[in-house]
């Protein structure tokens, strides 16, 4: 039976958009299927559904044919990479052998190379020795088949003005830039401590007195930045060097044991003092002050939060020395306890208060009696610069007493005007 029906259709048009970039080039984008307000029209009689099926099948094909300028550029880039894959693979294989046997400096016969200096230059034995004096690079020698570790002596020598002093040399194990442990002959002088002489060579000692092992400063800086920015652990860093530089398992184990020592903490502190220019000018800050936030007048917007996953067991004991950074970031425990004991708080939370229960679920998995620090409370400005931290001895589990007094302590010391806290908390006021 022939049926008549009324349908709603949207007229579709192509819209061409021209954009002029900063460089002056014009980009053209085509916007398809731009619909206008619907128009009601009478449709011709429909006897079968075959025409509708053909139309529905033709629509996807037409949409597939329409490509934007970005899609075309992306496909063009992929085709260019595909056409170069085989040539680039061939060049990589050819680079495994020397491209020339002429020294880049003296034009004599060459059979040495240093990948840390250049991937194409070749050197003779005399030139490689001169250019790599007091260097932690590891040259390689071509033996007609492959490159092997150079048999040249690795030495670190003092400049000529130290000849008049008592100069002596001894062997030392050094972790070079690649993480390998190599034996060097190091020249030292009695005019200054051995650690200072090693620092002139660009290496960091593992012990303060008569060090037998040292690290390349470039290696420690790489470890420092990866641990700070990428949260890479010591084990992950050692495994990375193992796969990148083909280290043996014994070398990785020795490097791991060396990186967890006290010397690495001392290097971090030394690196911080060098970056903050500590001691050069009294007007310089210590690098922990936000350069944007107001220092005297104005509203200081801060963010407060507590993390109850950072706990400390009582069985851990106490530190033998003061923190390397002093009270730059963490408030002294004596000051916090003295303030809390001198400001009793007997108030009770109202019915709308959450009673500071954020850490209950996390801390219920541990025995609180075995902990002397149940969390860390911190404050940072809105530019993500940390301002101050303090240890929580009770946290949010035992009511809100210490938290309220902690807030008051922070208010008295920093006079915050605008506060952003991660959870809703009680109104802080000082009676």
Helical residues, percent = 25-40%
The shape is extended
N-to-C order of helices and strands:
EEEEHHEHEEEEEHEEHHHHEEHHEEEHE
Biggest sheet overview: 5 strands, mixed
Q: Which structural class is indicated by helix and strand composition?
A: alpha+beta
The value of Rg in angstroms is 35 Å
Q: Strand order, biggest sheet?
A: 8-10-9-12-11
The overall pLDDT, averaged over residues, is 76
Figure out the total of helices.
11
Low-confidence stretches: 1-10, 37-52, 395-405, 411-421, 423-431
The end-to-end distance, rounded to whole angstroms, is 88 Å
Number of strands: 18
Q: Into which percentage range does the β-strand content fall?
A: 15-25%
Pfam family, one: CxC2
Biased composition (Low complexity): 41-51
InterPro entries: CxC2_KDZ-assoc, KDZ
Domain CxC2-like cysteine cluster KDZ transposase-associated: 159-243
